[in-house]
What does this fold into?
Amino acid sequence: MKTYNILPLLRMEHLKGGYFVLWIEDADMASQCRPGMFFELKANLPGLFKPISVYSVSDSRIAFMIKNVGSGTNALSELREGDLLQVIGPLGTSFPIFEHQSTVLVSGGVGYPPLAFLKTRLPHSCQVSFLHGGACADDVFPADECYTVDGSAGIKAFVTEGVLSLITRQRIDIVYSCGPLAMLQALNRICKDNCIKHFASLEAYMACGVGVCHGCAVPVGKHGQYQRVCVEGPVFDADILNWELM
Amino acid sequence: MNRLSTTLGRLSFESPITVASGTFGTEYFDFYDQSVLGAYVSKTITFEAKAGNPPPRLYETEAGLINSIGLQNPGIEVFVREHLPALIDKLSIPLIVSFSGSSVTEFVRMLEMLESWDGIAGYEVNVSCPNVEKEGIAFGTDPDMVFDLTSKLNAVTKRELIIKLSPNVSDIATIAQAAEAGGASSLALINTLFGMAIDWQTGKARIKRGIGGYSGTGIKPVALALTYKAAQAVKIPILAMGGIYTWQDALEFFYAGASMIALGTANFVNPLAPVDVLNGLGYYLEQKDMRLSDIIGSVSF
It folds into this structure.
């Protein structure tokens, strides 16, 4: 069950390019975290919480990798160890996990953390490739293959081109993804064309994070229906989403 | 002695705090006990199901939130069959059901359907949603329509009948008086103001439908002025809302003439907002050795 806590920041690590990793400690919350789930986090600001995916869990510690993109994430980036952080979670759905699958993880930019977490929880029976892409070297994190748009690190290409190339070399059963909408849409077409099962973790503006406000709706199906990213997602079976209306 | 008890028309409450329709669900009772609230106001239902508006539906501004949900709801039939029994079962505080129709006949039919259910203490008649075309606000801006609708609904129910007013009108006093004359037992105000935000770098509207409903800190002075204006214009009690985040905010609305207040956007910013406001008000009144009723409408100049 989700809980609301005010917790001290256990540890903060600043990375390149405005990315940072913060750690909190809570045994109950940590024990419920599965890859794909998120928390609502907030520093001491008058505004809304920010939905942030779980990056890693070890014992009772939970880590979040965040990119400083606005006032809410900036306030989080300025926290120091011991500062208090408002936390609601864990929230949302997780990536479904299957045995014996040829699995590809595809992330773009700040879509990296939930897939990095998923990689640590996939069964040994799965053969796993992790492809990550970003705009430039600042957006690159450890993965099996890295891509940048400007060529400043890894291979100069879109990460989706890496997926296309991988398809020519091996069979892929399942793709898990998280990243910018354009990347997810391109990836979805590739998966459809090649009959690959695809689960995508989506990002959305949220007000409540707990299913109340219906602000984070995404289009599903063909009849103008919506589902909430905070409750029915953030991880969706890509087949149910209406990608044209996204 | 409960210094905080209050009344709203036909109902008495142990707590003067409730929640704004659409900003709250029983999900929040994971965080605190429901007795913190005087009543529970459910999300507005309409006759037919509504899928809601296309996203993006939300944008956080410098001083509040713009939303364009579009009254997403399962429709009254599914609501009474699947949601209402569970809600009644879960609640130990009075339930106020919020609803909206696209014609007077539809409003009346909905009220008749709800009347057959025990466990509903009152109704909030939403004639003020800015995010749908036919329902709500089309009624709430015309005093004759408000009078006609209120009197037809009043003939159907003996329960608390709250008319929820829009701030997007030229004279709220006239609308408030029309609702009172039609037999409303109380008023709720304000619903959201029209609001808009544009990404200056791309020229793209932040909300898919362009204009949404603006709530939160930024609308508090407007809500307070309209609460005062309505309270001066009518004798029926007022359930006030609009940018109330703290117990100090709440006190301002009681001074302006509110008998009860609702928290809306505050719930998103502070999931314990109702608890904090209740505790703050209780402590303040104890220190001053006053009752809430001593404060209501006692603004001085």
